[in-house]
Amino acid sequence: MAGGLISAIGCILSFFAPSVYFLYFSFGLTGCGLGLAYNSSIFAVGLHFEKKRVLATALTFVGGGVGPLLLPILFQYLIDELMWRGTMLITAGLCLQLCFCGILYRPLPEVYDTPVKVKQSHFVISEIFQTKLLKEVKYHLYLFNFLTWSMGIFIFFVMVNDFTVSSGISKEDSAVLLSMVGVTNVMGRLMTALLGNNPRVNRLLSYNVLTAFHAIFTMIYLVGNSYTTFVVLALFFGFFYGSKLAFIAVVTTQLFGVENLVYAYGYGMFAVGIGALLGPPIAGK
User: Fold this and answer.
1) Which of 17, 29, 248, 252 to pair with 47, CA 20 to 30 A apart?
2) Quick one: which of 58, 56, 69 has its CA closest to 184?
3) What does the pLDDT look like over 164-192, one tens digit per residue?
4) How far is 254 from 237, CA to CA, in rounded Å?
5) In 3-state terms, the chain is what percent helix, strand and coil (to 5)?
């Protein structure tokens, strides 16, 4: 609920932005709020479900896939009709819906209450923040994976419209391409939901294979020279992106245990944020 309120305030402040430098602050505030809401939803699902954790997590991510399916076209329309300032107010209203979603959450099962209370009663930083994770080489690789992956992802999402327009595609058709990413994004998440609970599926291997294919189709996007090519690449990009996302929380639990899910995933999302901050500026124009 706090995340929804903070993100909405950031969008409202953006409406009054006098300069792009102010937007750095206001958009950053929106990002902090969305990060709070996003991580909380993943933690709640991951800790509530045990036997069907893959299915529950993947279905949670399916909802997130609907956004890329609908919002690019909607926002392009809103920007054309209301300009970007009016669009920010509409976005603030959407963010406030997170507050209503938060009302529906319930306390965690009692089985997880005790260790959390024990950790909170120790006024020792290593216990409160579980810094022991940061000493594991395995976790260093985990964070490095998140960092480099997010750099590439946000380069794509920030620059794909300009790239396709520079290749002769209209702005409207470029927005449709992102919606196509959303279509197969949802399909990939559904596939994970259906197959992820199968004991014969090696989740860690699946995650690595999906990551590799996701990277391959991102690189191939650079050589696209027609709208048809971009459509095909967008469909594959979205499928592997959605499939990989739906595995993240489950793989995190498998590697570091459900008792460390909140800390391991939280630090991982921090690495994603750093990658999102570094990726587009490094890519340049």
Assistant:
1) 29
2) 69
3) 888 888 887 887 888 788 888 888 888 87
4) 26
5) 85, 0, 15
